[in-house]
Amino acid sequence: MEISGYDRANGVGVRNHVAVMATVGCAGDAAERIVQLYPKAKLLVHLQGCAQTPPDIELVEKVLVNLALNPNVYSVLLVSLGCESVNADKVADKISSAKNVEVVRVQERGLSNTISKGSEIVKKMCDEAEKVSRTKVDFSEIKVAIKCGASDSTSGIISNPVAGRVADMIIREGGTVIFGETTEIIGAEHILAKRAIDDTVARKMFTAIEDMEKRAMSMGVDMRGGQPTGGNIKGGITTIEEKSLGAICKTGTSKLVDAIGYGDVPSKKGLIFMDSPGREMEALTGFAAGGAQIILFTTGLGAPQGFPTVPVIKISGNPEVCARLNEHIDVDLSPVFYGKESLDKAAQRLFNEIIDVATFKRTKAEILGYEKFFNIYVKGPVI
Known about the structure:
Layout: E1 2-8, E2 11-13, E3 17-22, H1 28-37, E4 42-44, H2 54-69, E5 73-80, H3 88-95, E6 101-105, H4 106-129, E7 135-138, E8 143-148, H5 155-172, E9 176-179, H6 189-193, H7 199-217, H8 230-234, H9 240-247, E10 256-260, E11 271-274, H10 280-289, E12 294-298, E13 312-316, H11 319-324, E14 331-332, H12 334-337, H13 343-359, H14 364-368
Parallel strand pairs: 3-4, 3-5, 5-6, 8-9, 8-12, 9-11, 10-11, 12-13, 13-14
Antiparallel strand pairs: 1-2, 1-7
Helix pairs in contact: 1-4, 2-3, 2-10, 5-9, 5-13
């Protein structure tokens, strides 16, 4: 199957963005003001990058590099403070292997001059990006990440099963599907393990879950109250096991070919588990860093946020939410709720939406610009 996309040295993009990315939280204001002057660019600001343990700094650097290397990104401006723990030159060097990247530092020239220089660079990058055209590319180059958020009782019986059918369709076409949310497979991990291609993959997934549980227990608490969330409980989900059984429906029935770390780029095609939290800001970031060009986001209660450089398709099977939050929901699955449409037919409709979004159609979050904030998932303290 062929689609229209941007054929780059490191993959196929479905968008052609210039990214303005802060290397540390305290450079975010400068990055934002640059984008305010040239809003064609996409802003990526976060809260990490300094006064953290060395493993977390290495993780932040890896994620920043991989976010920039996402095929949806044409070129990158890194906005650095100048004294942060993240090595901006190291990050830029790794990005430069595949695309154009520039660095500006607030401490070298002050805020006003940084904004002026940065906006000059971004204008040039955007002008160059506009000269790039789509070409015919094979669908097998596409990575789709699937997440659920603000889940309710309809998520596990409608939107997640539909997403799971779509996951199988993508994999049959030679594509890749990434899922994560480590906390939200607890209690259902044995089911996924049976689908692993070997014991090594299953063990990597189990290790990620055990690590998540140990970090919660190290605080002298368990995860109840945090997972399921208060919204999940109000929506009819009572336990983490119940939530997980509904959540894993979005993985379909394909074999689990690998389990990878947060923000890693898959080296295999097929169904991939990424160790990641359930919270949207960090989970979407991990998927984008993993190279996903499109994200499917199932929601029961209505989670509206998108991501700056990756189109996020919102789907829901809750009729009330689809009606009340129509400006946020891309694919309304309420016909399934009322028995007017089968899960298979709904899945075909959703698959067609993916093709449209990959080729030309903007998602609701893109239209609304509901995509500003993201964060990077770290495991240690601020020190």
